[in-house]
Specification:
Helices cover about 50% and strands about 15% of the residues. Helix 10 runs antiparallel to helix 11. It is globular and about 90 Å long. Strands 1, 2, 3, 4, 5 and 6 form a 6-stranded mixed beta sheet that branches. Strands 12-16-14-15-13 form a 5-stranded mixed beta sheet. The chain is of the alpha+beta class.
Length: about 700
């Protein structure tokens, strides 16, 4: 029954009369605005906003949120502008309504991009005021409760979206009750048959378990009373969707899941929680490694509790959660449990309890990601990565706790501290010992990141990072770096091409340059340089368009000096893997589409094909002072004997080189061919190493392929 009076009566338990009047006014305004509109079920439309406000009232939300709930569809459905709401109810309520309206435009059947854009809007709205998402969650909750009025296909698509986006958000904000209801209702909407069969099996199983459940419950209660602990012991039932997920993902049978008995013990203080834990461990034997203390180290969504698993009579597994009443509230309602606002009319306090601080940190992280993401699809992929349920807790060198998703590495940790720390990270110490950056972290470890100036993220990190923040920061850096490097290379290639016309960029007048760019169909010189650097445009043809026509026709046969190549040429210059050129080799450059300049040895077989397009080939040479480590391939034919690889490795190390890769191929029973990639300084260095290897008696033949 849609009745504002019964809602007002409920509100009187925690809101002053003037604020209740404010909510009433919003109700009557909405009733008038939606006059004549009906829901799919045939009820007057106003029943929906009233029900949403009711859900928020049960969370003890403030008057502004309740008014926004009443008005949340007004801008969308009735054509009343935001300005009118500001005039009537103040800018705070109008902003909330506007925020919720932007999110309501979730067309489930729309393409992924559209949905992703809406999700970006949600992140922005949440960042301004977290209450927007709470109103939205309550709106979605009521829609899920009234799904039966919709067609089955629409029902399933709304349910799927709820599972993918809204349930994880409720979980991230610690709102467990809302999450469970979302999941169970969505489960029934998507798989009605599976859900009803599972529910029937659950009802039957509960009947069979009743006696043993009560026995264990009484034993726990009696033992706690005997030790003078006043506690509420509740049997805990797993909800349908979680049973279904466990059966599907962990391949567990229904019987295996139902064989576990779960209880929750509510006590008066954190101290009593630990005392109760000791009593329970005395009553039944605890299972080793199954104890978790989320009171000392709360989960990232604010959840606090002690978890333990015991073996009861006849070896029955018993799961126990021990927590205080406040922690229980927090676990069920999350961010809504601590809603602290100043008096109505004041500016909303978006800080508050620890759960709010956590939620705000998360939303702040979303915003940072949004600014870095190349597009909305990349953003939504990152966010889904970030709505993780499992965490590990590690310590900074100063003892601060950092929570990360399961599978996170030192690189994730570095980026969670600060983007600059991530970008300049070179090594990690885990519990004072050097460890690989890709090693997954475990709870309780102390992590120290070692950084260095003038280093940059390694693209390979993308293969193992587990957090959205790290992934988006690395991608952002590489994208920016790629742009910077391709512009720099493009400038060098264009200058070299212009030299053929006896001119250079600086000598081209402003008018001449803009005329040439217009002809080449580019809006800026940087865009042209980037395309040349990426190999999408031939430098010579671009130069021809930029110089005056008379010069273009007369000169063009001049030989320009070759481009000099150094070891650190950036992302747009690479050394071909087919022939692995090193300083001292005669080299040529190939401008490759999308890759920039690829350096080959002049003798490389692959260049025969490449020379068919001379416009993409350019003369290059090594700069006089080239230094650094380069990779070179060698093939060594040896007589097979024990320890031969160790002998080769020793000689290579003695020669000041190192082995990057090694592959052994048995030619026959006596001989083997070993293909190695070595890190050397130049051709002379490689020749010295090969000479050392030739002196080994087991080496038959040694050569550099290609």
């Amino acid at each position: 029954m849609h009745n504002i009076d019964s809602l007002a009566h409920r509100l009187s338990s925690y809101l002053p009369p003037d604020q209740i009047q404010f909510v009433r006014r919003a109700y009557f305004y909405a009733e008038q605005a939606h006059d004549g509109q009906q829901r799919r079920s045939g009820e007057p439309y106003i029943t929906h906003p009233l029900a949403v406000a009711s859900i928020l009232a049960s969370m003890h939300m403030d008057a502004q949120s309740l008014a926004a709930a009443m008005l949340h569809d007004v801008i969308e459905d009735t054509g009343i502008p935001k300005a009118a709401l500001t005039e009537q109810f103040g800018s705070e309520v109008a902003d909330l309504v506007d925020g919720v309206s932007k999110l309501t435009q979730f067309e489930t059947d729309s393409p992924a991009e559209k949905q992703a854009e809406n999700f970006q809007k949600m992140a922005l709205a949440m960042a301004r005021d977290l209450r927007v998402i709470l109103v939205k969650l309550a709106d979605r909750l009521h829609n899920m409760r009234t799904l039966s009025a919709l067609k089955p296909t629409k029902r399933a698509s709304i349910a799927r979206e709820t599972l993918e986006i809204y349930a994880p958000i409720a979980h991230r904000l610690g709102m467990n009750d809302v999450r469970i209801e979302f999941e169970d209702r969505a489960f029934f909407a998507i798989y009605p048959l599976r859900a009803s069969r599972l529910r029937a099996a659950l009802v039957a199983a509960r009947g069979n378990r009743k006696e043993l459940l009560e026995k264990i419950q009484n034993a726990i209660k009696l033992r706690l009373e005997r030790e003078g602990i006043d506690a509420l012991v509740i049997g805990r039932e797993k909800h349908l969707y979680s049973i279904y997920l466990k059966m599907r993902t962990k391949k567990k049978s229904f019987k295996e899941i139902m064989d576990v008995y779960a209880f929750r013990i509510i006590v008066d203080s954190a101290d009593t929680s630990y005392r109760a834990l000791g009593v329970i461990h005395n009553l039944y034997k605890p299972v080793i490694n199954e104890f978790k203390d989320y009171i000392a180290i709360p989960k990232s969504n604010g959840y606090q509790s002690l978890h333990t698993v015991l073996l009861g009579m006849h070896g029955v597994p018993i799961e126990v959660q021990i927590r205080t009443g406040e922690m229980d509230n927090m676990a069920n309602s999350g961010i809504a449990a601590h809603w602290l606002y100043k008096a109505a009319g004041d500016e909303a306090l978006n800080t508050g309890g620890s759960s709010q601080a956590r939620a705000r940190r998360w939303v702040q992280g979303l915003l940072e990601m949004q600014q870095r993401a190349g597009d909305s699809l990349e953003f939504i992929e990152n966010v889904k990565l970030d709505l993780f349920p499992d965490e590990v807790y590690v310590f900074t060198p100063k003892g601060k706790i950092v929570d990360l998703p399961a599978g996170a590495t030192a690189v994730d940790f570095a980026y969670s501290v600060h983007t600059d720390v991530g970008n300049s990270c070179v090594a990690v110490r885990i519990n004072q010992r050097l460890a690989p950056l890709s090693q997954p972290l475990e709870s309780g470890q102390k992590i120290e990141i070692l950084t260095r100036k003038n280093v940059q993220p390694n693209p390979n990190w993308l293969n193992f990072v587990a957090t959205a923040k790290a992934r988006s920061a690395i991608r952002h850096f590489l994208k920016h770096q790629r742009h910077h490097d391709s512009v720099a290379l493009g400038r060098r290639l264009l200058e070299q091409a212009l030299a053929k016309f006896n001119t250079q960029l600086a000598k081209l007048g402003e008018d001449q340059l803009s005329k040439g760019l217009q002809e080449a169909k580019y809006t800026s010189l940087d865009k042209l340089l980037e395309d040349i650097g990426l190999g999408n445009r031939v430098a010579f043809s671009a130069a021809k368009l930029l110089v005056p026509k008379a010069i273009a026709e007369s000169a063009a046969s001049n030989i320009s000096s070759p481009l000099s190549i150094d070891a650190k040429e950036g992302m747009m210059t690479s050394f071909a893997r087919c022939c692995r050129p090193i300083p001292g080799d005669t080299i040529i450059g190939h401008i490759s589409f999308g890759k920039g300049l690829v350096v080959h040895r002049d003798t490389c077989r692959n260049t025969i094909e490449l020379r068919e397009h001379p416009e993409n080939i350019m003369p290059i040479n090594w700069s006089a002072d080239v230094q650094g480590d380069f990779l070179a391939d060698i093939r060594v034919e040896v007589e097979s004997e024990r320890g031969m690889i160790a002998s080769l490795a020793t000689r290579i190390t003695e020669g000041g080189a190192s082995i990057e890769q090694i592959h052994v191929d048995e030619k026959d029973a006596r001989n083997s061919v070993i293909a190695m990639t070595l890190e050397v300084n130049n051709r002379v260095h490689l020749a010295r190493v090969m000479k050392r290897l030739r002196t080994l008696p087991t080496v038959i033949r040694i050569a550099r392929p290609g």
